[in-house]
Design brief:
With 309 residues, the protein is an alpha+beta fold. α2 packs across α3. It is globular, with a radius of gyration of 21 Å.
Amino acid sequence: MPEFEFDVDASIAAGWERFAGHLAGLLRALEPGDSFDMTVPALGTSPPESPYLRFTRPAAGRLHADVFGGGDAASPAPLNGEYLDRLDSLGWTARASTAHVTMSADHARTIARLVVDTATAVFGLPHPVFLNDAPGPTPHAPVDPDPDRDPGTDHVDFRPLPISCPDEATRAVGAALAEVYACEMPADRNDVFTVPAGRVPLFVRAHRSLPLIVFRSPLVAAVADPAAAETEVAILNRDSLWCRYVFDGETIYAESEFVDRVFLPVNFKIQLAEVSAELDDVHADLARRVSGRRWRDTRPMQDRPPGEQ
């Protein structure tokens, strides 16, 4: 992969592969009678209205999975007809208002792969990072509990980290992201981190030869109005304080750079928060104006009912 580029498709595939392996391990570890739920933050929903999956081991040697439209165990909400049709096409047994599948415990990996297909094709999740329930980055600088101390030497966010190679930059980014999202955010084999920037995926990578941290987000895909896209990109580039927007003929990307010759965590976190806020703010209207598809849509904006746009 070029030193300044991202292989977005490879990063997405690696993320789902890692997720499927982790889910399969959790399924194998279930004891008879045990169960756990996984909320799916489908676009336009929020708990308790979000769909969720329930995984159960009803007996030794068997695994069972259900898909519900929301609610809770006492009163699960039904799935709508569009969801049911898509679930049925993937191999779920869809009946009335729910869908389920039962397999041998030896097929934990098969169920995990089915869940990946369901998350992407039915609920429109572009990357498993949206299943982590991670909080979004805050645009505010951290507050030192002891304001009398010198923050430049005492507060970890204000301690400069000299960077001498891309691997050091990657480690610094990983540590900062883990603090921002309150969970481990692993890089893929190309040292690309994927994080949720509101409702869009944001890819972060240390440049391999320049002292830069590069942010990139595929904001709108399947653009049907190239002329409008060129105009919108020009307007965004005129007005944006944090990002550069690029249209490649099919997809509109947002890019930003952070100089890391000396890595100051607080500055990185502020830029991450500001970039995330800007992308989350512009992507939906941008998709409408260029007749494209947001990365969490399962169909183009012009094909969605007005209430879903």
